[in-house]
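Below is a filled-in request sheet from our internal design queue. Each sheet records the structural input a requester submitted and the sequence that came back. We keep these sheets so that new team members can see what a complete request looks like end to end.

REQUESTER: design group, bay 2
PRIORITY: normal
MODE: inverse folding
CHAIN LENGTH: 155
BACKBONE (tokenized):
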């Protein structure tokens, strides 16, 4: 039977569950927390404003775009999650993935998932369920994904 991992993530934390093929029991695989939990403001994290430049001897001037630190940290956390998914793939811990994340963060995960992990993402649910207990999560997913989980386990 096909092993399925369910990844529940947002920009601050991620929980990975495996689903037992026999009784659809959820087993916690790993919980990841974002190391720099974005409590600081962008202004606290950057030294000054964007730089300026002048193009040649003309009067054309421009400025460099300021890097959004929160966005960079979100990208790093998505990369960390994808490293865990790659490790799980190489150790045959799963064959299929269900990812539950709000659309913007899912975009980061999808971007950083390697070419071997991306095809294993069989279903994406655009929700933030990171605050759900395991019991509540199982109830919600049984309602929403029961059919998909059965199909993934059989294939």
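RETURNED SEQUENCE:
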């Amino acid at each position: 039977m096909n092993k399925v991992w369910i990844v529940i993530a947002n920009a601050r934390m991620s929980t990975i569950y495996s689903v037992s093929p026999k009784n659809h029991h959820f087993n916690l695989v790993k919980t990841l927390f974002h190391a720099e939990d974005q409590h600081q403001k962008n202004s606290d994290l950057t030294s000054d404003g964007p730089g300026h430049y002048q193009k040649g001897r003309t009067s054309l001037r421009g400025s460099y775009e300021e890097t959004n630190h929160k966005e960079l940290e979100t990208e790093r956390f998505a990369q960390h999650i994808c490293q865990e998914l790659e490790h799980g793939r190489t150790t045959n811990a799963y064959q299929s993935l269900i990812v539950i994340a709000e659309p913007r963060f899912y975009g980061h995960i999808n971007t950083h998932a390697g070419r071997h992990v991306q095809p294993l993402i069989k279903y994406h649910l655009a929700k933030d369920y990171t605050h759900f207990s395991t019991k509540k999560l199982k109830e919600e997913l049984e309602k929403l994904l029961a059919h998909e989980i059965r199909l993934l386990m059989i294939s």
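SHEET NOTES:
- Helices lie at 42-45, 69-90, 103-112, 134-154.
- The longest helix spans residues 69-90.
FILED BY: M.R.
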